[in-house]
């Protein structure tokens, strides 16, 4: 079996394609806690938003919590990124 080599960004973007709410929620946790490298609240909000849309109730709470630490511009960017992801997935 061939081994697929991806950068960490490619892995994160590839992994959730068609993914369920729990996979998307885990990505939010990864970015929120820094497990994906660096803490990135914009990315975390994006993934929590997508997980919430797919039915993960915990994602709604996490999204709300981190939104309190973000600017309006950051929240708008995260929402735009979530819409873009939905458009192609």
Structural commentary:
This protein has 89 residues and is mainly alpha-helical. It has one domain. Helix content is 69%, strand content 0%. It is built from five helices and no strands. The chain has helices at 8-14, 21-33, 41-53, 57-67, 72-88. Helix 3 (41-53) runs antiparallel to helix 4. It is globular. The termini are far apart. Residues 1-15 have low confidence and may be disordered.
Layout of secondary structure:
Elements: H1 8-14, H2 21-33, H3 41-53, H4 57-67, H5 72-88
Helix pairs in contact: 2-3, 3-4, 3-5
Q: Can you give me a brief rundown of this structure?
A:
The chain is mainly alpha-helical. The protein contains five helices and no strands. It has one domain (19-88).
Reported for the largest beta sheet, the result is: none
Beta-strand level of the residues, as a percent range?
Answer: under 5%
Report the strand count.
0
How many domain regions? 1
* C-alpha end-to-end distance: 26 Å
Poorly predicted runs are: 1-15
Number of helices: 5
Q: Rounded to an integer, what's the Rg over CA atoms?
A: 13 Å
Give me the strand/helix succession: HHHHH
Identify the overall geometry.
globular
Amount of helix: 55-70%
SS-based class: mainly alpha
Name the features.
mainly alpha; 69% helix; disordered N terminus
């Amino acid at each position: 079996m061939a081994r697929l080599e991806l950068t960490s960004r490619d892995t994160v973007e590839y992994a959730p394609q068609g993914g369920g709410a729990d996979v998307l929620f885990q990505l939010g946790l990864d970015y929120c806690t820094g497990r994906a490298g660096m803490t990135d609240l914009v990315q975390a909000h994006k993934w929590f938003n997508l997980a919430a849309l797919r039915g993960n109730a915990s994602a709604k709470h996490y999204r709300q919590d981190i939104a309190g630490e973000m600017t309006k511009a950051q929240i708008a960017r995260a929402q735009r990124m979530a819409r873009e992801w939905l458009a192609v997935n």
